[in-house]
Amino acid sequence: MIPVVKTVEEVRRYVKSAKKEGKTIGFVPTMGFLHEGHKSLIVRAAKENDFVVVSDFVNPTQFGPNEDFEAYPRDIEQDAKLCKEAGADIIFNPEAPEMYDNALTTVTVDKITKVLCGASRPGHFAGVATVVSKLFNIVAPDRAYFGEKDAQQLMVIRKMVKDLNFDIEIVGCPIIREEDGLAKSSRNTYLNCEERKAALCLSRALNIGKKMIEDGEKSAVAVKNAIIAEIEKEPLSKIDYVEIVDLDTLDPAERTDTGILTAIAVYIGKTRLIDNFIIEKVDNK
Ligand code: AMP
Asked: Which of 41, 185, 186, 216 could form a disulfide with 145 if both were Cys (CB 3.0 to 4.6 A apart)?
């Protein structure tokens, strides 16, 4: 069985001894209840590094007071199996007091955390940036792996790493989906049968938007309106946001050929789901 370690000291001991043997360190931060999306990150980390650490920690500081921290699904035994299959070497699964002992320090990334999920979830990205900084300092990896499923989070982490000179390569990995198109998420387990069908409106709407752009639509607002219209056809849905933004600044985009992130957050019943697609800048030269 793969070691599940609970303390910072133990993780450091494992990593130090791996480094002593000249091994490179790959790191995959997660909140557990692992699925194929997480697995794709771990498999990639194992391919590109000699020693892989997965953190499995439902971080309380990135949840708002009315969010699902308590209800968030947890299953460390199942996670340990998946990690082993995927090629990880250890799991770091601390309790909250191991991570936060009367801490007074936080890491905040400005501007790009104020839009999209940051606008709907105040404090969320400060929680993420702080815990990821701590985990980077604990694990001291060569490379860390993040999913494009959380596209804004990936951008925030890239910016933080650049701004604070973390000597870590950030690797973005593509979104893994169910066969019918729903982006895999630990939160999908909240959906009942009817909601699970309704949740397909996210990927369906994004596909419509993507196809419009591929067919030559240049107006961001036209694409955005088509996405909104498709989601609103689903009675169980309630849009949190639908935005098309510049890939670097996250400012609203007017055109679709300048490098864009199309990101959506939609409630299906009580469950908030996110999804997105990225279209890189079209080079007309
Ligand atoms: P979470 O456990 O939800 O915090 O996710 C941990 C990491 O897995 C993050 O970098 C996510 O972006 C990534 N991830 C979650 N779901 C998927 C997915 N369906 N495809 C690719 N990466 C994912």
From this structure: 41
